Amino acid sequence: METLKEKSEYKFAVLGAGHGGTAMAGHLSLSGIDVSLYNRGVNRIQSIKEGGGIEILSDNDNIPRGFAELKIVTSDIGEAIYGRDIIMVVLPATGHGYIAEQLVPHLVDDQIIVLNPGRTGGALEVLNILRKKQCKADVVVCEAQTLLYASRSMNPAQTQIFRIKNSVPVAAIPAHRTPEVVKVLRTALPQFIPGDNVMKTSLDNIGSIFHPAVTVLNAGRIESTNGDFEYYTEGITASVSLILEKMDRERVCVAEALGFRAMTAREWLYIAYDAAGRTLIEAMRNNRGYDGIMAPKTILHRYITEDVPMSLVPIASLGRFCNVPTPTIDSIILLASILHETDYWACGRTVEQMGLTGMTLKQLRSFITEG
């Protein structure tokens, strides 16, 4: 990788114009970064393109706000990443496979691909696809442990950022390339810190704990109120938190069996939001970063459609890989499959999609750390 450039010299591409993508593109632009914005669907970005940018709203004085100019807004992925140093993929994890295939003919040496976030196994799946498609470019595939922003699109050209997390780990494959990647990312986004490796960022996927089960267990309330309640502060009650803690323990046990240490949900709340507590429910009550975030209006939501197949299924699949039972996680996968009349095991990200089939535990650890 080249010698570190000045902040303004690095060029970013943001792929995805949803809640997170518009927040990231707007934040980067307001921070003086040259950033392009891509979305597969033209309708989603039409008003941004016509207006020349995005309006960023925030009640937090520490977050840049105002009109963020975007010179390149496109549905042409080649145009979006041409001449760009860093490609920030801010899409539902169900789109990682598709976007990897679309990127292959346009990638060039030294580009950095960062999944924001990878959910569980995202970087592994993308790298597996690039190799299968015989990508010739020498690129680095990375993933963030979570999305940097708590944000919502108010309309296609206006996004509100509620909070920017204090720190978000990023890891590359192989792990020894992580420090150089993070140095580049921190020229624009200092909140990014080095993660140990992609297995740790994948298994530190706290969305796998906070999203699917809370939605499934609040299905009746979501349907009867059209989501008219605060998702985290009201949806996670003392009883719900007991189930979340069981799932969290299973996730941590899978990581331990693979040879990696995953942080608990309580530890993550403290690191990401300064929210402390002796129990999970107490830590959630002390987290002001989730205030005002409403529940989904329907159970047909990415908290299930994305987080079950791309978070819970890979955790359970890795559990089977290393002979660790995940009964509570399996139960939520089953209930979600019944609710949506979809076999999430069949369409989820498994060890096979991550390119790990046939590996021993020793080989897996070596591949993650050394490539």
Plain-language structure description:
With 371 residues, this protein is of the alpha/beta class. It has 2 domains: 195 residues, Rossmann fold, CATH 3.40.50; 151 residues, N-(1-d-carboxylethyl)-l-norvaline Dehydrogenase, domain 2 (Orthogonal Bundle), CATH 1.10.1040. Helix content is 45%, strand content 16%. The protein has an 8-stranded mixed beta sheet, with helices on both faces. A 4-stranded mixed beta sheet has the order 4-3-10-9. Helix 12 packs across helix 16 and helix 16 runs antiparallel to helix 17. The radius of gyration is 19 Å and the shape is globular. The mean pLDDT is 94.
Shape: globular
Tally the helices. Answer: 19
What is the first-to-last residue Cα distance? Answer: 17 Å
Largest sheet: 8 strands, mixed
CATH class of the largest domain: Alpha Beta
Low-confidence stretches: none
Can you give the helix content as a percent range? Answer: 40-55%
Strand order of the largest sheet: 5-2-1-6-7-8-11-12
Q: What would you give as the CATH superfamily of the largest domain?
A: NAD(P)-binding Rossmann-like Domain
Oligomer: single chain
- Sheet-strand content, in percent, reads 15-25%
Radius of gyration: 19 Å
Q: What's the total number of strands?
A: 12
Q: Average the pLDDT over all residues and give the rounded result.
A: 94
Structural category is: alpha/beta
